[in-house]
């Protein structure tokens, strides 16, 4: 379902670079320090990673290309993940879904879904239940297999619920319950007003 990744000004990738992930397994090879892990960092970053440390930096602006001997630093970093949605797995009516994150040196940033500005929350709810999220199981990093095997039953259940697509509905249920509580409060307030007026 992950079709491509496009990055520009992100870590060691100063120029706009596109990685296509055709069906099957993609292997990224290269010498130490050539930027292999930066590709995974870009995917985590688009999916909303908020911690600079998890992206192996000190602060968020560290993801912006900081310049090299031959060229100056970039003013912004951006990454776009392209999902193939021809089977309609994502709840958006488009054959391809582009999810973009951009950050400027000023610290300002934005998220976009198919070029429309959105909140991180929208991206999270878009991919919930697909197994793609930063805390999900698609990105398996060093040590994660061990952690999964050693996880207690409750934590392991969370992984299976994500795989089964249940977590999307759980998140919706929480949201609906929150809305219901708000409606209840409004009803009480309305009752008070009616009492006052009557
Ligand atoms: P290894 O096999 O050693 O893990 P790797 O191929 O995974 O290496 P990465 O860790 O992805 O390499 O890349 C690290 C490189 O990215 C370093 O050379 C580092 O200088 C560069 N880099 C990281 N952040 C930036 C930045 N903001 N601007 C420019 N270069 C950066």
What does this structure look like?
This is Chromosome partition protein Smc. There is one protein chain. With 198 residues, the chain is of the alpha+beta class. Helix content is 35%, strand content 19%. It has five helices and six strands. The protein has helices at residues 36-46, 120-127, 144-150, 153-164, 166-197, and strands spanning 2-8, 17-20, 76-84, 96-104, 109-113, 116-118. β4 (96-104) and β5 (109-113) form a beta hairpin. It binds adenosine-5'-triphosphate.
Identify low-pLDDT runs: none
What is the CA-CA span between the terminal residues? 60 Å
Please, how many helices?
Answer: 5
Question: Order of strands across the biggest sheet?
Answer: 2-1-3-4-5-6
User: Approximately how much beta-strand content do the residues carry?
Assistant: 15-25%
Which structural class fits the helix and strand makeup?
A: alpha+beta
Q: Report the helical percentage.
A: 25-40%
C-alpha Rg, in Å? 21 Å
Q: Which ligands appear in the coordinates?
A: adenosine-5'-triphosphate
Instruction: Spell the H/E element sequence.
Output: EEHEEEEHHHH
| Number of distinct beta strands | 6
Main pleated sheet: 6 strands, antiparallel
